[in-house]
Amino acid sequence: MKIESLTNNKVKTWNKLKEKKYRDETGLFLIEGDHLIKEALKRNLVVSTIGLTSDYDYEVTSEILKKLSCQKSGTNEIAIVKKIEEKEITGDNVVILDGIQDPGNLGTIIRSAVAFNIGTLILSQDCVDLYNDKVIRSSEGMIFNINIVRKNLKEIIPEIKLSGYTIYAATVDGDKTFDDDKKIAFIIGNEGSGIKKEILELCDKNITIKMNENCESLNAGVSASILMYELGGRR
Amino acid sequence: MKIESLTNNKVKTWNKLKEKKYRDETGLFLIEGDHLIKEALKRNLVVSTIGLTSDYDYEVTSEILKKLSCQKSGTNEIAIVKKIEEKEITGDNVVILDGIQDPGNLGTIIRSAVAFNIGTLILSQDCVDLYNDKVIRSSEGMIFNINIVRKNLKEIIPEIKLSGYTIYAATVDGDKTFDDDKKIAFIIGNEGSGIKKEILELCDKNITIKMNENCESLNAGVSASILMYELGGRR
């Protein structure tokens, strides 16, 4: 199908998917570029493709693509994609994010989580939206390669403790290494304020990355990645 | 001194420091907020302070502060700061960045470099400007706590090899651990294209972070941080 008008209804509807509200209503989101679309196709999540030729489900003008793109430089192709289904929490290593706000940090953490064989990534309800374009872009398509669930942490933490996970809080005053627990979930807190007090209280142990005293803390994406590296990459 | 006009010459001059050209010409840059200003004061780099009361060298209106700020939410105080002097390359662990373009990545790497006791950070001439406001902000003030130099890598690498450093290239096909070399410098390449061919040829060894095959690479700031953690944090 060929569309040439910027005010076409399909174009308007697609463009709305840039807003969380419409993504939540429809269960759909937008992705841009060859690499991401390939990853989504592998998972059978693509609803329709949009590009400059008749090879796509919708052939559109470069002005329409520019309008739909979230990047300054625009893009050559866009796909409308179904949100990824949340599965059960699995894996010996789980990461919990309590209020991560920066989309780049979340994307980076997703990318590292795949690299270091994390079974499940649990997002608190106040984390940035998973389907934010910057999250997807900085995940480099890895968003399609890991189980990510959004949960009420006060409910899910006691639940996974019962199923055998030891819960570590990443703080500034913990031990320098993980113990030899069979199943481990660690929590990374918000960029500014850290882990919420009521969540900290649910944790079994603290874990800290050893660092020079001139540096108070690391970037949240880096902290999470180093701890995942310790857990999933090394052990 | 009190300034109330947005078109005051001082205000205009300060505002120009948002551009690299003027930072290079004057050797000055702008920083915002209590935390950064404290770090700059510790190093005696502050030329003048600008804020809303007579406690500052320049008392200005909130409109002026808003104009000078690089942040959407504005700031309460700004300082004009001297660029940090480049010192000789020191330390047993050195990190070399070949063409890092993302200011957030550079800031993150600086922060991690302080955390993991890196002696010197060497930037190639095509790295993003160190005094870009996003670099400074994401370094969380750590820019004042480490020796950072900008060099022609083709000249400096042979030079530091002569002074005893073993040069590792962070690539996808190297060894998984650093050898027991006394002095180590590792190179992280550009976010998209990696390390330049002519720079790779100058390296002694390759180093790779072991990861799941579904993930092609890590974020550059994360890769650098994990290797620094291995070098400066662990050994």
What does it look like?
The structure is a homodimer of 235-residue chains. Chain A is α/β, with parallel strands linked by helices and 235 residues long. Chain A is 34% helix and 25% strand. Chain A contains 9 helices and 11 strands. The first copy, chain A, has helices spanning 9-16, 20-26, 34-42, 62-68, 103-115, 133-138, 153-162, 197-200, 220-234, and strands spanning 2-3, 28-32, 46-51, 58-60, 77-82, 93-98, 120-124, 147-151, 165-175, 183-189, 205-207. In chain A, the strands form 2 sheets. In chain A, strands 8-7-6-10-9-11 form a 6-stranded parallel β-sheet, with helices on both faces. A 5-stranded mixed β-sheet of chain A has the order 1-4-3-5-2. In chain A, helix 5 (103-115) runs parallel beside helix 9. Chain A starts with a strand and ends with a helix. The A-B interface holds A 104, 108, 111-112, 114-117, 138, 140, 142, 145, 209-212, 214-219, 221-222, 225-226, 229, 233 and B 104, 108, 111-112, 114-117, 138, 140, 142, 145, 209-212, 214-219, 221-222, 225-226, 229, 233.
